Request: fold
Amino acid sequence: MSSELLAAQRADLAGLAARGRLRALSPRAGVDFASNDYLGLASSAALAEAMRAALDRGVPVGSGGSRLLRGNHPEHEALEAEAAAFFGSEAALFCATGFAANSALLATLPQRGDLILADELIHASSHEGLRLTRAEHRLVSHNDPDAYAKAITAWRRGASSSSGAGQVWIAVETLYSMDGDFAPLAELSALAQREGAILIADEAHATGIYGPGGRGLVADLPQRDHIISLHTCGKALGVEGALLCGPGALRDFLVNRARGFIFSTAPSPLIAAVVREALRIVAGGDSLRHELQARIGAARELLAPLGAQCHDSPILPLVLGGDVRTMAVAARLQAAGFDVRGIRPPTVPEGSSRLRIVITRNAGFDDLADLVVVLSEALAA
Reply:
């Protein structure tokens, strides 16, 4: 290919490399301190057996088309019915990925004249939905309920005749993927109820490990009819895809209006069958959650003295600041047999490059102790 072709793209890549921000794919290797497979189900015998059983009963690997054509399979609908019952919602919609579900939700559901208030640290998939939405949208200071309240008041008192007349939507993650901290759900839920707002709760990193039976953090709230929740299937559930849970009108509207859903090939019916089994496992998985929490407790004690941010979640970021240093420390850990990844802007704010250390059932207590020894040496170098 001529060097003149993709010249702008090549220059951009060179600039990323010069700043220590060039990304590249690498195979998995070493002890898992990087994945979101919190309960260790992704490689479990139980899910492998569920897939074999589904194949034996004739569930197809591929869907063959979008859900609105021939791609809708009984396994999709069985999963959605079971998910709605499990998460306590009127209906559920199975989507191919969490990114697709999040972006479609915010791009489609809020209407012109509405207001979306999203946490400033919300996931990139939500930002994609905000980029496409017809509603007004604003980012709000991280985990600050008062900032949401003030933004709603200011919007409703706006000078334009149309301002403040529509629906307010509050979009948050219940457990933030890069900081490991929790949203103030009780306060935000109460605010949404007072203001007639709808709370969109992305439970991606909480599903399976928090709430009764792993139903997520929203399940602990006393009233949930004003809440739409998203539950990804590729983290603690160990499979892939995502479930949007809420009123029946939510499901029907997305089926009719969400372009990402309408014009995408349906997820594999085989995967839907395995997600059904994953829901059954996490429903009875208190022992798995207790085992994970014990590992998290040990990790807090060992990593907090090294500067890791500890919020009683499996995500323990160690902010190092500089891109180059972050990646150098990550490389040293990887060379020693520990899969820890460095995270740089724009995934995280400028000046906050970090090691994202994740605790799962895939790594034992001895693995954690060994990691801390190598990490201490790397930080002191």
Q: What stands out?
A: The mean pLDDT is 95.
